[in-house]
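Following up on my earlier message about magnesium ion. Here are the inputs again, as you asked, copied directly from the submission form:
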Amino acid sequence: MLTIGSTDAMQRLGQRLADAARPGDTIALSGDLGAGKSTLARMILNALGFAGEVPSPTFALILPYDPPEVRIPVIHADFYRLDGAMELEELGLDAGDPALLIAEWPERVGGLAGPDTLELRITGSDASERRIDAQPGHNWQARWQQIAGELS
Ligand SMILES: Nc1ncnc2c1ncn2[C@@H]1O[C@H](COP(=O)(O)OP(=O)(O)O)[C@@H](O)[C@H]1O
Ligand SMILES: [Mg+2]
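Thanks, got it. Here's what our run produced:
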């Protein structure tokens, strides 16, 4: 469990995640509406070099970002409007995609757990304090331990 005391602290988390992320990874962001999933996704994209506006993909479902605007290819997804019936492949997402997938509402597609997935649950929507509960997949364990250690 990691306590995030402010949007600045969330930004530091976004920076560390951007530094650690590799193509083929998934960062799955859970939490209620307003928890800060899109905010953290935006911070990661900005830390990867994207200078433009990062819209919420609630209606587009998936928004791709490609070099040179970002250091590595990123797909930002929001599965809120899916009911689980739609397959990821139908959205043009396929396991082994050489991009970083940042996915909001992973539970809507049955979860995205796997060795390359970092699952983060954000809770608390009063003021700016947030709590992050992480479930790092095998290939994220050492990286998450380092990030959480540096930020706590
Ligand atoms: N520490 C924080 N981390 C992230 N967002 C925060 C934080 N403190 C306040 N906020 C605010 O909470 C809101 C989160 O909205 P958003 O990121 O769209 O949520 P979600 O995508 O989870 O529905 C934003 O208005 C953001 O400015
Ligand atoms: Mg959102």
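One observation from looking it over: The beta strands are 2-4, 26-30, 62-65, 74-78, 100-104, 117-123, 130-136. Hope that helps, and feel free to reply on this thread.
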